[in-house]
Structures are given as structure tokens and as C-alpha cells.
Amino acid sequence: MGKSYFGIFKMEFKGELQYRAKAISGIATQFFWGILQIYLYTAFMQQDAVNGFTISQMISYIWLGQAFFAMRYIVMGKRIGKEITNGNVCYKFIRPIGIYNQWYVEGVGQKLASTLLRFAPIIIIAFLLPANLRMHGPVSFVAFLLFIVSLILGLFISNAISMFAVFLTFKTLSDKGSIGIVSSISNLFAGLIIPLPLFPQGVQNVINYLPFRFISDLPFRIYIGNVGITDGLIYIAIGLAWLVVLMLLGRALINSALRKTVIQGG
Amino acid sequence: MLYANYLKMHLKSSFQYRYNMMFISFNQVLINISEVLAVYLLFKQFDSVAGWTFYQSLIMMGIVYTVYSLTECFARGYDEFPKLIQSGELDRFLIRPVNIHYQIFGSKIEFSKLGRVVLGIVISIIAFLNVDIEWTALKVIVLIATYVCGIFVIFGLFVLSAGISIYTIENLEFLNIITNGSKELAYYPINIYAKWLTTIFTYIIPIACFNYLPLSYILEIGTIPAWLCATAPFFGMLFVIPCIIFFNLSLRKYKSSGS
């Protein structure tokens, strides 16, 4: 069983590696966005710390966001949407692995592959930039380890949320639309549009417990030291609980949608 | 008129999938609303940026949404130009006795973008109602020029990146910086960015000419001479000319991709 999951995973990985030119062009784009955002938030913050969030922490937060961009965004595997709209999905039914698991592993593979392909150059260059744009190291070694753990958790949660877009695609047969709806909610509450520490405290108190912030906000805040080690551990436990809930719910929804599926030939 | 036929054809074809179109349109509006909400929360925390308040910045966002989406709706053919090259459709365009730009305009009209145009207008109206402005005839003219300038500049950017894709064939993500990057940049007063960025996006790609400069004049903010701010959108419109020239020259070098 584990072997077949690894097979799906490896296939996605290799597929992603084919597009190296795309990755380089993507990295350049990421840099431009990163620099733009740093100037923007520096202008807003005016040298002050906000809720204990300093400018240098903000800069590291932005660069981490750019480096791990590929796993933060809610995209389902490019093929999944097409498979549903063009009907190739029926081949998935005849395989001896549950369809949710097949898609889930595909999604993780794709996100992980495009992340691994992109993050290193961005991090390295971000450390070499002039002082007003430079990224800083993790606050401590323990924090760094916890950052890695929470980042992996984030990858799984991000993918579990993408699966809701897959469900919506099943219901509406429009992959563009479904990704849009799920990602517009997710991007806002995951801190992709604006870093969550810059939101008013009252709003943060709510957002902190929603599943979206575990995708990237939590690992980044652990890295910069904005969330301490004990708090980090508690949040990771909450994140794990969310992961279980999201996966169970996603699986139930997709299975119920499948029961009513009609393959229209073609 | 030929364009009326194009328009009718695209309208009919989008109504074939009307739920899909409405769904996508609703979606894009939702994405933008979440963006506006994020900016609102940001201003709730900080009150102002570089002397601009939330509603003053919101005017800029509204203008950008309107002009960008309107251009996207009607000039989508330029945005998706690499597809025309890859599919070989462009080769067919070139042998027809109709102007190429006319055909690119006609190749795609995306009505689902109109939802965002409406959102942009609604946002701008809300923003204008919450800001104190002493309206004069000249300010109204400058505001109209601002919208026209915005459409011209965004259209110029689409043409420019279409022209570049004649050489690259592929639609490189990097080209997104030119179009999408300019759009995001236009949400906030441009002087908050570093000098080199401000210079590029004022003099080379005149983004500032359809938000920061004319609005400084209308809202009477900042220290830049009023006459300069008021005339900026008129200068900004000229941007589209070199873009079209570049595109036409590039097209002469076009080699079919063979498919």
C-alpha cells in the first residue's frame, strides 16, 4: 500500500521537475513581489513594532512566504481539475486505492516538488540582500526544528483544504471557479494577502484558531520568534486536530459526491 | 460592422455556459472583496500610509479594478497572445485581409470580467463619498482622463507583453510582473516604494499617471506641483504608442511555431 502511494508521489515529483525554465522565471517573479511587499509594509509600520512584530521579523516573514510560495497556495494538481471536467477521472475509480487518497498524494507530491525546486535560491539570495531587505536567521535552533515540523504540518493542511476545491469542482464542473472560491477565503485567513501579525489584535484572536493560518503563518512566526516554543507546540497540536477534521470531512464530502457521479462518456 | 459580429459571437458562446460564466465572475469579485477586506484590516491597524487614509487609497484600488478589468475583458486576446502563437491561430490571422489588431481584439472577449468592473465602480463611489473633495470642472476632467489613461496604460502593457511573447513563444510567469505587478503596485501611493521603483513606475511604465499623481491633485495631498499632477494622465496615455510600435515591429520578425 505504502509503495503505491510513493509511486504516485514520485510521478508528480518528476513531472514538476520537467519545468525548470518555469521555475527560474517563477523565482524572479517571487523576488519582485517580495521586494514590493517589504517596501509596502515598511511604509505602513514606520519603524514601529506592531503587537511585538518588528520590521526585521516582517522581512523574514515575507521572504519565507515567497520561498514557500508553492505550498501556500490552494491549487489542486493541474490535472485533477481537467480529469474531472474531461471525464478521465473514471480511470481512478478502477484502481485499488481510494480516490481521496490518490488525489491527496498527488497534491502533496506536486506542492512538495515545486517547493523544493524553488525555495533554496530565494532563501540564499534573501540572506545576501542589503540590510533594509535582508532576511534573518531563525530565532533559535529549537525554533528552527519546530519551524520544520509545523511547515510539514502546513503542507498537509494546505492540501487538505485544496481537496475542498476538488469537491466543489465535482459539484459545479468548473475547476477555475472552485479554486477561486476556496483560495480567496484561504488566502485571506492564511496571511497570504497581508501578513496576519499586521491585522488588528481582535481579528487575529479569531484567525489564529482557524485552520488556514497553520499553512504558513504559524511556521513563519515560530521561525522569527513571534510565537514562542510552548505556544508553538500547543498550536501544532491544534493544527493536527484540524488536519484530522479536514481530511475526514473532505473524504466524506467527496465520497458522497462520487455516489451521485455520472460519467458522460466521451 | 465586423466588431459587432465578434461581440455577438462571444456573447452567445459565453451564454452557452452561463452558469459557468456567472460562477467565474462571482468568484473574481469574491477574490477582490477579500483583497479589499485585507486592506481595510491593514488600515484599521495603521490608520494611514504616507499620509493617505483608507478611503483615499480605496479610490486608487477602485480605479485599478475598473480599468484593469475593462481592458482585460475587451483586450484579452493580447493577454492570451502566446496561445494564439502556439495554436497557429495567429498564422491564420496574418493571411486575412483585416488588420491584425482588429482580429486580436475580436479573438477573445471575456464578459466574466465585467463583474469586477462593477465592483471597481462601486468601491470608487463608496470611497469618493467618504472623502472630502471640493469638486471643480477641472477636477472632473482630470478624473475622466485618469480612467482613460489607466485603460491606455494597461492596454499598452498587454500589447508589450504580447510583443515579448513573439520572441519567447511561451507565456513566462515573469511577464506577469509587467501586467499583474503593475496592477498591485497601483493600489497604494507610489511614493512609499524605493526611489528606483518609483522612477520606473512613473517615467517608464507610467502607473503613477493614473493613480498617485492625478489623485494627489484631486484630493490636494502632497507637495508635487498641481499643474504637473493634473496633466500627468495626459502624458501617461502616450505610453501606448511605443508599445504598439514595438508589437508591430516584433510581428515582422514572427516565425510561425509550426503547429
Strand content of the residues of chain A, in percent? under 5%
Structural class computed from helices and strand pairing of chain A = mainly alpha
- Counted by DSSP, the helix tally of chain B is 14
C-alpha geometry of chain A? globular
Quaternary structure type: heterodimer
Strand order of the largest sheet of chain B: 1-2
The largest sheet of chain A, given as strand count, sense and whether it forms a barrel, is:
none
Helix and strand string of chain B, N-terminal first?
HHEEHHHHHHHHHHHH
Estimated radius of gyration of chain A: 19 Å
Largest contact between chains: A-B, 34 and 36 residues
Share in β-strands of chain B? under 5%
Q: Estimate the global geometry of chain B from the Cα principal axes.
A: globular
What's the short story on this structure?
The complex is a heterodimer of chains A (266) and B (259). Chain A is mainly α and 266 residues long.
Tell me what the structure shows.
The complex is a heterodimer of chains A (266) and B (259). Chain A contains 12 helices and no strands. With 266 residues, chain A is mainly alpha-helical. Chain A has one domain (2-259). In chain A, helix 1 (2-17) packs across helix 7, helix 8 (141-172) runs antiparallel to helix 11 (217-224) and helix 8 runs parallel beside helix 12. Chain A starts with a helix and ends in a 7-residue tail after the last helix. The relative contact order of chain A is 0.14. The mean pLDDT of chain A is 84. Chain B has one domain (2-252). In chain B, 74% of the residues lie in helices and 2% in strands. A two-stranded antiparallel sheet of chain B has the order 1-2. In chain B, helix 2 (18-46) runs parallel beside helix 8 and helix 9 (137-168) packs parallel to helix 14. Chain B is globular and about 55 Å long. The two termini of chain B are 31 Å apart. Chain A binds chain B through residues 21-22, 25-26, 28-29, 32-33, 35-36, 39-40, 43-45, 50, 172-174, 176-177, 180-181, 183-185, 187-188, 193-194, 198-200, 203, and chain B through 19-20, 23-24, 26-28, 30-31, 33-35, 37-39, 41-42, 44-46, 49-50, 170, 172-174, 176-177, 181, 184-185, 188, 192-194, 197.
